[in-house]
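Please, structure for the following, as tokens.
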Amino acid sequence: MTPLIMMELSTRMVSLFLDTHAVMTLRLMGMAGAMPHARGENERMVNEKGPALAKAYVAATKTAIAGGRPDQIMTAAMAPVSKKVRANRKRLTK
């Protein structure tokens, strides 16, 4: 792997971590009553985990079977999770 590929992977990981932290903070604030909280948000939080992780597993497995490099496998695994987390952050910050 080249340094540029490693930097791109690191950037994607940091973006996922920051979005995840924001979503966790917003949801905890909602649970604590510090900000408006949509009805059913707690159930939604729990119910979306399984399908997102399953999509990540499938994407990583397909990439690995196709002979992908480790960075490609990680990127494939992070893509569905990142998409869901980003959508949650946008929805919760409205």
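The chain has four helices and no strands. The two ends are 39 Å apart (CA to CA).
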